[in-house]
Amino acid sequence: MNYIKLLNAAFEKFFFDDRLNPTHISLYMALFQEWNSSRFADEFFVNRRELMRVAKIGSKSTYHRCVTDLHSWNYLTYFPSNNPYKGSKIKMTIIKTTDDTDTGQYSPILEQVAEQYRPRSVPVVGHNHPISGQTVDLHRPVSGQALVSNINNHY
Question: So where are the chain's domains?
């Protein structure tokens, strides 16, 4: 399985599916990571508590609503477990892109999807990352250290 192709296909499908809300997408992404961790196994078991933590879902009812929605909308197949010691089983649906080729050709649809998720920061000319040469986003520190301005601080 090609991780990037599968992820791009999912984002393309999300773009055109008005039924989805951010919680559905967050849960799908958490499930996608579990699927990737299982080396894209045909089926895998999940821990609801862990998925809720990763997807930032605080309510069991929201989790169950979203997973059953994703099941009914054919994003995945959900096999609930009634055993508290055994997780539910998930089978992810392999989503095909509208241009499902391996040639790496430009896809205007994927470009639209990517544009929706691109950060809106303005690059500063001459402020490049010292190692990679990439432009630094002023709102994201390179070292992981939070940057705090000391300008106009009155104590």
Answer: 3-100+109-115
Q: What is the CATH number of domain 3-100+109-115?
A: 1.10.10
Cα separations (Å) of 53 from 17, 26, 64? 25, 11, 14
pTM summary value: 0.65
pLDDT in tens, the chain (155 residues): 789 999 999 999 999 999 999 999 999 999 999 999 999 999 999 999 999 999 999 999 999 999 999 999 999 999 999 887 889 999 999 988 666 554 455 566 666 666 665 555 544 444 444 444 444 444 444 444 545 555 665 55
3-state secondary structure of 51: helix
